[in-house]
Amino acid sequence: xxxxxxxxxxxxxxxxxxxxxxxxxxxxxxxxxxxxxxxxxxxxxxxxxxxxxxxxxxxxxxxxxxxxxxxxxxxxxxxxxxxxxxxxxxxxxxxxxxxxxxxxxxxxxxxxxxxxxxxxxxxxxxxxxxxxxxxxxxxxxxxxxxxxxxxxxxxxxxxxxxxxxxxxxxxxxxxxxxxxxxxxxxxxxxxxxxxxxxxxxxxxxxxxxxxxxxxxxxxxxxxxxxxxxxxxxxxxxxxxxxxxxxx
Length: 247
Ligand code: SAM
Hints:
The chain is of the alpha/beta class.
C-alpha cells in the first residue's frame, strides 16, 4: 500500500503538465527517509489540504529531502455534508490530543479554542502548534484531504456576544451551548427550522459554564442542549456532538 503524506506547500494542480517533480522537506520527508526508509521507485500518495490527493512515485532520496514525481490528481471529498464548528474549552495534556484526533476522524470542519471563565488550560501558540501536528497526522491516517480548520482562540465574552451572532458568517447557523437540563440534541436537530443549517457548538471546561456565560449565550440566540443524564468530560461532550451531527 502506498504511504500517504502531507505537503505543506500547495501541489501542482495542472494535470496537463504531469508528470511534475516536487520536493518534500521537513518532518514529512524526515519520516519517509529515516523511519519508513523509502526507496526510489516506491509509490506515494500526497495531499496538501486542498481537497485532492495526488499519486506520485519517489524518484530521488537524499539525506534531508526527497523528490517525487506526481502523475495523477483526484478530488476525493471525504468531508461531512453537515458542517460543524466546535468551540471547546481546552482540556489538559493528552486529552487535548485525543480530542483533536477524534474530531478530525469524525469530520469536524472547524475547531475554536475557547477561553471560558473556569478554563484551566491555556490556548496559546504552543497548544496551536501541537494541535496542528495532530490535525495533519490524523488526516493522513483517516484519508481526509481537507484539513480541520484551527481557528484563533476566542473568549466566551466574544463567542456569546450579539456582535458574534450577527456576523454574516454565522448566519444560517444553529448555535448550541452544551449545558445540563435542556432539550436533547436529538430534539433540537429534529426541529424543521434547524434542517440544513451549519452547527456551532460550545462546550465548557471541567468546571462548567458560569450562569452569566449561559445567560449571555441565551440572550444572543444560542440554544441550550443536554447530552443526557450523565455528566461527560469536556472532550467526550465535544466528540459526542460531532459524532451525532456528521456523516
Ligand atoms: N460540573 C460541571 C457542570 O455542572 O456544568 C460539569 C462540566 S462538564 C465536565 C464539561 C462540559 O461538558 C460542560 O460545561 C458542558 O458544556 C458539557 N457537558 C457535559 N455533560 C453534559 C450533559 N450531560 N449535557 C450537556 N452538556 C454536558
